[in-house]
Specification:
The chain is an alpha/beta fold. It has twelve helices and eight strands. Bound molecules: 5,10-methenyl-6,7,8-trihydrofolic acid (MHF), 3-methyl-2-oxobutanoic acid and magnesium ion. Belongs to the PanB family.
Length: about 280
């Protein structure tokens, strides 16, 4: 499944990825041709109502991965189910400090139905990525703005703006590719830098707020539907959606059409536009 997608990507086809947390949407997305369903730890915000992703547990991730896997798997009423790759985020605290623990947790996500796991971090996580890959677990590296480090990064800020940080990001992406990751994801990275790194590494890149030069794109489902208005304890009027979020429901009128339009816009290279990028 993952191999087939990576092969298609080599011909220049763009990867359309969306976050997904339950079986109903998994089935709908699989039928709409979404290439990768990301069981994101953004569920801490959009499902659990927290203000960040720091309190999501392994148990939460296993549960939602199982829900998504159950909805996306092929069966008589969903023959295209086989076409969606399921990627699960490793939650904060589940992989950063101990490689053996990282492997056990990654294997639990694979057991629950994930085809690939995603970890946040660059140079300091290369050994962990290599360790998981050596034990047969495909990995995606998440670089740029890494929400699990939001406190350390001092807020939701674009990354790679200085020459030094841009160079570090390129080196991290190269090291991760060398370690054998299947994909690299860039969040809130200048479009020119993400495009440049995409040209420099042999694995596909996925962008969110990282411009149209990536090999694919990802959005949070609730942002695509325009229904996320911040954490449960905050008034909606105090929330400002990130620049890269685009409401596809507004222009289409049905959830199915919104997802289908997102997929075609990504495949055609029409999303993201300048206004979504940095
Ligand atoms: N609904 C939702 N969408 C996301 O894209 C998302 C999540 N949740 N949860 C996990 C992470 C957190 N992410 C976020 C959240 C907010 C901004 C944001 O507010 N960006 C503003 C900048 C605000 C500022 O400068 O302080 C922007 O305009 O892009 C960016 C990324 C991305 N991920
Ligand atoms: C925003 C994406 C890339 C993510 O990691 C998530 O949804 O958790
Ligand atoms: Mg995440």
């Amino acid at each position: 499944m993952l191999e087939a997608l990576l092969k298609r990507t080599q011909t220049g086809e763009k990867i359309a990825m969306l976050t997904c947390y339950d079986a109903t949407f998994a089935k709908l997305m699989a039928l709409a041709g979404v290439d990768v369903l990301l069981v994101g730890d953004s569920l801490g915000m959009v499902i659990q109502g927290d203000g960040n992703t720091l309190h999501v547990s392994m148990q939460d991730m296993v549960y939602h991965t199982r829900c998504v896997s159950n909805g996306a798997r092929p069966r008589a009423d969903n023959p295209s189910g086989t076409n969606s790759v399921i990627m699960s985020d490793m939650p904060a605290g589940s992989y950063e400090h101990d490689k053996a623990l990282a492997l056990a947790n990654a294997q639990a996500l694979i057991e629950a139905g994930a085809h690939i796991v995603k970890i946040e971090g660059g140079g300091n996580m290369v050994d962990t990525a290599a360790y998981l890959i050596m034990h047969g677990v495909p990995v995606c590296a998440h670089l740029g703005f890494t929400p699990q480090s939001v406190e350390k990064l001092g807020g939701y800020k674009i990354q790679g703006k200085t020459a030094e940080s841009a160079h570090t990001m390129l080196a991290d992406a190269q090291a991760m590719a060398h370690a054998g990751v299947s994909m690299v994801l860039f969040e809130m990275v200048p479009a020119a830098l993400a495009a440049h790194i995409t040209q420099q590494i042999a694995v596909p890149t996925i962008g969110i707020g990282a411009g149209a030069g990536c090999s694919g794109q990802v959005l949070v489902l609730q942002d695509l539907l325009g229904i996320y208005t911040g954490p449960a304890d905050k008034a909606p009027e105090d929330y400002k959606a990130p620049r890269f979020a685009q409401n596809f429901l507004h222009q289409t009128g049905s959830v199915q059409q919104a997802i289908a339009t997102y997929v075609s816009a990504v495949k055609a290279g029409c999303f993201p536009e300048e206004q979504h990028s940095y």
